[in-house]
# Entry
Amino acid sequence: MPEPVSIIIPVFNEEGAIASTLAAVESTMQASGRVYEVLVVDDGSEDGTAGVLAGTTARVVRHRANRGYGAALKTGIRATTHPLVAILDADGTYPIARLPELLAHLDEADMVVGARTGGSVHVPALRRPVKWLLTRAANLLSGHRIPDLNSGLRVFRRELAIRFFGLFPDGFSFTSTITLASHINGYRVEYIPIDYYRRTGASSIRPVRDTLNFFLLIVRMVVTFRPLNVFLPTALALLVLGAIKAALDFSRTGAFGVGAAILILTAIQIALMGLLADLVTRRTSL
# Structure
């Protein structure tokens, strides 16, 4: 008998898409034969979303004010008891029909992500370079190949989310956080290529601010679990710069300059800080 799943859908001003999304979820899951519940977290919508939800059979939890995508998902996870959790957006961008397939792969994984690498992927042109850079940074710093860092269609075991609950932010970085935390801590993460459609309604993503937050999140998560992956490359870069500066100074004056000494000493200090942070991380994880 397949394990039951709680399907969490966070919404904020999605009156134009939520009804069709819920209908697609119901038809897909009924055909799958798996026990499920649908939980919609209305994150302080200011349009007609609440009225649309009143006419559906979904279980609804409401925030009095908008608290953020991650906050809505955390509310949903707290309110569920099923061992499996699925999350998806309400804007019509994800292929809901693939949900049973993702759930089936959980038999051999802790989290299964619908990676937006299918044959039909609609990502705005301005976001593609930023998405590529963030993914490459995550791959480099975490030491894992991550096809899609922040896909909003994924399934995972509730116990996995509970372990890292204190790390989850209230904003859009929820998906990036659980992805990085799972990879770095040795959980089994599988990626299934999916299509990604043009959204219904206006996006609430703030490109500049959210991109900066995503990058800072990547660095923070790697420092939290694998500090040497950040400290040692930084120390090495400063050491190389210091050596180059020392060579240039010696060729010009026959002596080593203060600038070169500062760079080399800073590199040594950063490396020692990284070793200390790694020791603390390993001891606290025992």
